[in-house]
Amino acid sequence: MTMRTLLSLCFLITICAPCVAENESTNVPAEPAGMKSIFNGKDLSGWDGDKRLWSAQDGVIRGETTPDAVAAGNTFLIWTEGKTGDFDLRLSFRCNATNNSGIQYRSSRVTEGVKNDWVLKGYQHEVRNEKKFPNISGFIYDERGTRKRICLVGEKATWEPKTGKQVLATLIDEAAYQNLFKLDDWNEVAIIAKGNRIQHYLNGQLILDFTDNDPQLALLTGNLGLQLHAGKPMWVEFKNIRFAEIK
């Protein structure tokens, strides 16, 4: 191989390999002014859900299904005191590994053709107690929609009307994620949404950056909720839930 050929190959690798711009921080930004707690730490005031499955005490919201207390389809604890338009949400979660959960946002409430009274449709931040890609916490799932796993952890991507998802860069790989995620422990989440751009952070690190450019499918406002998934008995806990509207 000649030196000219080698230099040409190096140039192609450089321009083709996806990466994050050097001047673009991947650290979670400081909390904005106006951030407020939306869970009082004592009870479920301001939230609506199946009281058989959701409870609150000692600063923690707990959702749990058992063989005797079954979720009739995916069910949500829905925040009733605001909407998620342009927003910054911070919270911590932990769960077991027998099933999965989620943080629903910019979502609509579904009342027809459902098995329970607390059903949401829209963007979901996946919550799991797993470390192996791709079944991990943090990806965007299209709850009750057609796009399913819209954007995976590690991706900076867009969704285009004609071509669907276009991956522009890699933010984090599996090895780095495994070092970042705390199995069987509390993990801190930040979700920041401005217009059609959404960013997910885990334990202070940007893990997903998604821009929804499909005018027919992009969601710009809606409900916030916490999920209990139908199926195997499970539990999930949330705490330190803070929210701010972004002007």
Descriptive report:
This protein is mostly beta strands and 247 residues long. It has a single domain (37-245), classed as Jelly Rolls. Helices cover 9% and strands 43% of the residues. It is built from two helices and 17 strands. The protein has helices spanning 3-16, 174-180, and strands at 36-37, 47-48, 54-57, 60-65, 75-79, 87-95, 101-110, 119-127, 140-143, 149-151, 155-160, 164-170, 187-194, 197-202, 205-212, 223-228, 234-245. The strands form two sheets. Strands 1, 3, 4, 6, 11, 12, 13, 14, 15 and 17 form a ten-stranded mixed sheet that branches. The longest helix has 14 residues, at 3-16. The model is unreliable at 5-17 (pLDDT under 50).
The CATH C-level name is Mainly Beta
Structural class: mainly beta
* Rg over C-alpha atoms, rounded to the nearest angstrom: 19 Å
- Overall pLDDT score: 93
Give the SSE map.
Blueprint: H1 3-16, E1 36-37, E2 47-48, E3 54-57, E4 60-65, E5 75-79, E6 87-95, E7 101-110, E8 119-127, E9 140-143, E10 149-151, E11 155-160, E12 164-170, H2 174-180, E13 187-194, E14 197-202, E15 205-212, E16 223-228, E17 234-245
Parallel strand pairs: 11-15
Antiparallel strand pairs: 1-17, 2-5, 3-4, 4-17, 5-16, 6-13, 6-17, 7-8, 7-16, 8-9, 9-10, 11-12, 13-14, 14-15
Task: Characterize this entry briefly.
The chain has 247 residues and is mainly beta. The chain has helices spanning 3-16, 174-180; strands at 36-37, 47-48, 54-57, 60-65, 75-79, 87-95, 101-110, 119-127, 140-143, 149-151, 155-160, 164-170, 187-194, 197-202, 205-212, 223-228, 234-245. It has a single domain (37-245), classed as Exo-inulinase, domain 1 (Jelly Rolls, Sandwich).
